[in-house]
Amino acid sequence: MNGKVIVTGGTGYIGSHTAVELITAGFEVVIIDNLYNSDISVLDGIRSITGVTPKFYDYDLCDSQKLEEVFGAEGKVDAIIHFAAYKAVGESVRKPLEYYRNNLTSLMNLLEAMERHNTTALVFSSSCTVYGQPDTLPVTESSPVKDAASPYGYTKQAGEVIIRDTMASRPGQKAISLRYFNPIGAHPTAFIGELPRGVPENLVPYITQTAIGLREELKVFGTDYDTPDGSCIRDYLHVVDLAKAHVVALKRLLGGENKANYEVFNLGMGKGVSVLEAIAAFGKATGVRLNYSVTGRRAGDIEKIWADPSLANRELGWKAGISIEEAMETAWRWENKLKNKKS
Ligand code: UFG
After folding, report:
1. 8 Å CB contact between 114 and 97
2. Which residue's CA is the nearest one to ligand 1's atom 27?
3. Under a CB-based contact definition with an 8 Å cutoff, are residues 296 and 221 in contact?
4. What's the rounded mean pLDDT across residues 27-51?
């Protein structure tokens, strides 16, 4: 056993894939999740892949008493990976205070609990959204953090600052913020994957739900951008590659290989892919023709962004290697599995 790790938001999309990789790497995983945006059946998926059902607390991190209960029951906790947060960009514009309260209160409660219980390592789920629309591409970790496009984005910026300042005040503790680009795909076993509630906001679940007949057509939000084919460009990486980065980040902290007590890494493939190219990749990977049409731009969309992941490649020894076609294929396998479960 490598140690005990609390994974907040561990039944969510990235959290569940990370729980699998942690268990596979020999960590004991304890999940805290209030199931606001995830399903308890994810625990079965994790067990089907790893043979282990992680300990689970259906608790809200905004309730610091509940957090005390977890630490009281679990004894020594070596590290925390903090995923739990509201994450819908559009919703955050409509409900800013809910986003600020939930995402920041939960983080501050965790940081306080870490100190009380002498947990020394934290990995934080951040986002490339902190860069806003960068002036130069690809973005490195030293690219300026610009105005975020949404309250959600500001919660990630503020979360990073809160962690940085807290770590600066606590010599015995250390943290890493991981800035994800666009995670897609599902576990190759199709036991876990993305489970959007209601109409998906993100591109790939919208593609797979359209292809399977749950949605009539995919709307491409704008082909009048200053990009080669006019559609927006993102850096899509497979969720299993992303999950593995958390394991190496954690080992870096626990092994004392970190170069500062607060570090930041971009996690992406380092390759920009347009919306139209992503649609083509889905067709190539699955042979399924997708019904889509072009509509107007979506408010708040960044035109183009992709990562320079060389710092993570070098320092973490991590590289995203799963292609977008493979990612689309696993997302499609997962969508089919969901359909079969329902019917
Ligand atoms: N898109 C469509 N049609 C859709 C959905 C998306 O054309 O139905 C386009 C978007 O306009 C965008 C691209 O597909 O150009 C990717 O959109 P996503 O919603 O999948 O991803 P975003 O890049 O907008 O947002 C993601 C995460 C956020 C995070 C952000 C960081 O969902 O949590 O990356 O930039 F903040």
Report:
1. no
2. 182
3. yes
4. 98
Q: Is the pTM of this model over 0.85?
A: yes
The Cα-based distances of 327 to 42, 164, 278, 282, 322 in angstroms read 20, 33, 10, 9, 7
Name the residue with the closest Cα to ligand 1, atom 15. 232
pLDDT at 342: 75
Alpha-helical regions (H) of the chain? 13-24, 42-50, 64-74, 89-94, 96-116, 151-168, 203-211, 239-254, 275-286, 310-311, 324-342
Q: In sequence order, which residues have a C-beta less than 8 Å from that of residue 268 and are 6 or more positions away? A: 128, 180, 181, 182, 235, 237, 306, 307, 309, 320
Sorted by sequence, the CB contacts under 8 Å of residue 114 that are 6+ apart come out as: 80, 120, 122, 173
- CA distances 143 to 33, 137, 269, Å, are 33, 9, 17
Mutate to test the pocket of ligand 1, among 156, 221, 290, 304 (most ligand atoms within 8 A of CB): 221
Three-state secondary-structure class, residue 255 = coil
Q: What is the pLDDT of residues 109-129, one digit of tens each?
A: 999 999 999 999 999 999 999
Do residues 329 and 257 touch, judged by C-beta distance below 8 A? no
Find all residues with CB under 8 Å of 267, minimum gap 6, and list them: 178, 179, 180, 181, 237, 242, 245, 307, 309, 312, 318, 320
Task: Report the pLDDT value the prediction gives residue 260, as an integer from 0 to 100.
Answer: 97
Token pair in block for residue 266: 């971009």
Residue nearest to atom 35 of ligand 1 (CA): 129
Query: Does 106 sit in the ligand 1 pocket, CB within 6 Å?
Result: no
- What's the chain's average pLDDT? 97
Alpha-carbon gap, residue 111 to 230, rounded angstroms: 43
- What pLDDT digit, counting tens, does each position of 238-270 carry? 999 999 999 999 999 999 999 999 999 999 999
Report CA Rg, the chain. Answer: 19
User: What is the CB neighbour count within 10 angstroms for residue 65?
Assistant: 8
Strands, E, within 141-232: which ranges?
174-180, 182-184, 218-221
Report H helices in 214-323.
239-254, 275-286, 310-311
